[in-house]
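Hi! If you just cloned this repository, the fastest way to understand the data is to look at a raw example. We've pasted two of them here, unedited. The first protein comes first, obviously.
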Amino acid sequence: MAPGGLFWWVGAGVLVVLELLSGTFYLLMIALGCVAAAIAHIAGAAADVQFAVAAVVALAAVFVLKRSRFGRRTRKEASANPDVNLDIGQTLSVPAWHERRARVSYRGAQWDAELAPGEPEDAQTYEIIELHGSCLVVAAKRPATHHVDTR
């Protein structure tokens, strides 16, 4: 028995709802395959052709998505990702460096701090750029540049 057009539309709808819950776009690409199969059903295609259309369109859509900027999500290491670690980007002062390492007071506790490669030891303020366990990796805080609109 050939699947009816309703089968494909319901499948596409379920996949769209699941996509809204996952947020990855891949289920949406498979839903496009279901929509293409529904159109093939309307055109009078046999069941095997409908399934082939669904598979080919879904695979092509996933391939295109994978090659697009939406399919290439860059992942930062958790130790340097401000979305994972709220300490990234926070500032602190370092009283003295000893071989590019120091002991600093941060959030009411003593922490080890390490100067990032290429960073100067004479900055007034440092910014946390990464955490390695309980060691704060810091870089000299750059002064904020303000853009003046001259319109």
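Ok, and the second one:
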Amino acid sequence: MPSDYQPYDQGLLPVSHGNHIHWEISGNPDGKAAVVFHGGPGAPSDGARWYRDFDPAHWKLVIWHQRGCGRSTPHAGDPATSLEHNTTQNLVDDADKLRDHLGIDRWLVIGGSWGSTLALAYAEQHPHRVSEIILAAVTTSRPEEHAWITRGLSMFFPDHFEKFLEGLPEDDRDGNLALAYHRLLNSADAATREKAAHDWSKWDLATVTGGNNDFTGTPYDDPGFRYTTARVVTHYWGNEAFLEPNEIIDNLHRLKGIPGVLIHGRNDFGGPLHTAWAVAKGWPDAELVILGDAGHQAQEGNSMSQAITAAVAKFR
């Protein structure tokens, strides 16, 4: 991260239903605005990762934490925090309320994984507020995408999947696995919640890494991170992200005239390439960059990280 990349302003913005979203703004106050839609759902925004891509002399970079995670309040890591109003539509509304609060007319929207779903949902509803879009590890949260990542991947990871199922009561193993885990994650018993977060996270990590689910040296090493992300992601996946089945794909026509870059790894197990392909087909103004050696994650120095950096430079 550049040493001179420090937030020059930050705060907690009251949104709706008692939620406050944390935001920070860095770089050049008079620069071109960009906003990060982080992944998860439920994972905090990794500002340091995005700072590597945006020249602080040129960009006004906005980082925000979605409802219930990171430094936003109330926190989903507290089982007493209701997730009733933690929905895609409310997150879209939060993002535009933040844009208005910061006095930004239009901004570049960037996101990865779940952040790409949310970024697309936002852009489809507020296209006049979006200058460009950069998406990595593209998802649209269709029911088949959730079914693939919770059950379909068993063909590649039968060993991990068997343990994943064993974490559930036998009566729950044939239905909606995300909702079944969500029930355990909201149990009144702390030990039940902790075990469910551990078992869900073992599967989750395996799917994004291509089979490695060792927590060591990852955010999953933190029980609080495991619980928060597991609780929020099962809430979203179990409810099909509170979207109509093909809502994102069906509304891509609203992005006409907005230039974009879609970056996707051919070896992405958790989000197969066909989703990015479908988005590119429905959005002719976007360039699809297929990375033959990449999976789901952008890590410092890898081809996905380099492609994101190049996309940011393209829209400088």
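That's it. A detail worth noticing about the second one: The mean pLDDT is 94.
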